[in-house]
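Lab notebook: predicted structure, single chain.

Context: the supervisor wants predicted structures on file for every construct in the current expression panel, including those that have not yet been purified. This is the next one on the list. No modifications to the sequence; it matches the entry in the shared construct table.
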Amino acid sequence: MAAQEYAEYVSHADFCTGLAAGRMRVVVNPKLARRFVTQRLMLMIFLIPLIGVGVVVAMSGQVWAGGAIVAFGVILNRVLMFQAGNIVVQLALRDAKVYESVTQDGVMEVRRNGGA
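Prediction complete. Output recorded below exactly as produced.
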């Protein structure tokens, strides 16, 4: 195994100012970001009952309304999972504890740009 180059630690304050100025490069692991966003936003606690209500509405005779509710729940889940990387970066910008968590767990890697 070749010697790995580890990224230097970047503090939350440096991350916030450097990202806005374009001095930071952020790499987000999409798989871990999806898991983090699902847990952080408690999506399953919201989406499963929403889809369940849609199924109940559809079974009670309001097929179009129930189908729309189910479709909304499924589409909302897909959109949030597609945008999970951006959501992680925004959460990390706003909260130092989230930043520490995602950088330590390998969800997000922050590096300084070479020219800065």
